[in-house]
Design brief:
Elements (H helix, E strand, L loop, with lengths): L10 E5 L15 H4 L29 H13 L4 E5 L9 H9 L6 E6 L8 H7 L3 E5 L5 H8 L4 H14 L5 E6 L10 H5 L8 E5 L15 H11 L4 E3 L9 E4 L6 E5 L12 E4 L4 E3 L8 E2 L1 H4 L4 H17 L19 H4 L2
Parallel strand pairs: 1-2, 1-10, 2-3, 3-4, 4-5, 5-6, 6-9
Antiparallel strand pairs: 7-8, 8-9, 10-11, 11-12
């Protein structure tokens, strides 16, 4: 289905929880972290044993069956690619069931998961067996002290994430991406080191410019144009890689001889709204067409209808409204016009 501006909407991001086991300073910071001090040690909770309540204390999170129903309605409108996000999606013990349900819908071409990686080791093969074809792992640093400062987690958590990355790389056919948010004065020295991971591993390291949303309004960002210049000085032969590598807006580059690629997602300095192909569903069933704005529709009422046909019809109708309501573009270049006040953990990263 096309939106009002002729863009083909083929991609849906679904947040399965707004809870997380990290407190990253630009997403869900602790008070100490937000102020710039080193945060206290955080423990890592076990995966939820059942469908949890929303961390915000609002509606219960959607069940695997409800997520499948929404996804099936989305597929009827031409959406073929899905990504499960959070919060931290691996906090849900039923994540494999959710993946399996979506993957079984005729017409679904791809399904991926975005995770902070803390709970990935020991579960990645089960998720891949359920139908996960790609995993994006958030990793802003390779230094334990910097990891502590950014996330609020004891530096020991970094070892768990690295173990999850190694297990992911060992799964045949699984696409592995690392997502880094550059932050001046915090992880600036880590960026080249992270990019160097592509030299020896078949993965993509992607650098995402900070967006002025929620907690990100108070965090300093980094210009990806400057990062590309830095990488070009370090690796003079770096060139654009024109191969399609996913559903998102990243521009990819390759260091000569490297197994993997470097991706730049430049929302602030490379506005890509004219090719935006996605809608989002928050953990409680609210639909969003753009991260900039607080305008939302909800699938909750449609899911309460007793008849299967009535639910499908109502879900299709609200999804169609969400697609047709997508704005022409974000307004990140005009922060005062951004109406979204929630943090990314609530919206779905």
């Amino acid at each position: 289905m096309r939106d009002r501006f002729g863009r083909e909407i083929t991609y849906m991001r679904i947040s399965v929880t707004d809870a997380c086991n990290l407190h990253c300073r630009y997403c869900s910071p602790l008070p100490e972290n937000e102020a710039g001090a080193l945060p206290r040690k955080e423990t890592v909770p076990a995966p939820a044993k059942s469908i949890p309540e929303s961390a915000a204390g609002q509606n219960a999170l959607l069940s695997p069956g409800e997520i499948r129903e929404v996804s099936a309605a989305a597929v009827s409108l031409g959406i073929t690619r899905f990504r499960l996000t959070g919060g931290e999606p691996l906090l849900r013990a039923d994540l494999a069931e959710i993946i399996r349900g979506i993957r079984g819908i005729p017409g679904v071409e791809a399904i991926g998961v975005t995770t902070n990686g803390l709970l990935l080791a020991g579960r990645v093969r089960d998720l891949a067996d359920a139908g996960m074809q790609a995993v994006n792992i958030s990793l802003d640093t390779l230094d334990p002290d910097t990891f502590h400062r950014i996330t609020g987690n004891d530096g020991e958590g970094l070892a768990d994430i690295l173990a999850g990355i190694r297990e992911s790389l060992a799964v045949p056919g699984l696409k592995v991406h690392l997502n880094c948010v550059p932050q001046p004065g915090i992880n600036s020295r880590d960026l080249v080191r992270l990019a160097a991971l592509t030299l020896d591993h078949s993965l993509s390291v992607r650098f995402i410019e900070m967006m002025p949303i929620g907690c990100g309004r108070r965090a300093a960002g980094f210009d990806n144009r400057e990062l590309l210049e830095r990488l070009s000085r370090e690796y003079p032969g770096i060139t654009r890689d024109m191969d399609e590598q996913g559903s998102g807006p990243a521009l990819y580059y390759r260091i000569p001889g490297a197994e993997g690629t470097i991706g730049l997602i430049s929302a602030m300095h490379g506005k890509y709204c004219s090719t935006c192909n996605r809608i989002r569903m928050m953990a409680d069933g609210r639909l969003k067409g753009c991260l900039s704005y607080d305008s939302e529709l909800s699938v909750q009422q449609a899911l309460q209808l007793e008849s299967t046909d009535a639910r499908r019809s109502a879900l299709t109708r609200v999804l169609r409204q969400a697609i047709l309501g997508k704005p022409e573009g974000h307004c990140f270049e005009r922060p005062d016009d951004v109406t979204e006040t929630a943090c990314m953990i609530q919206i779905g990263g």
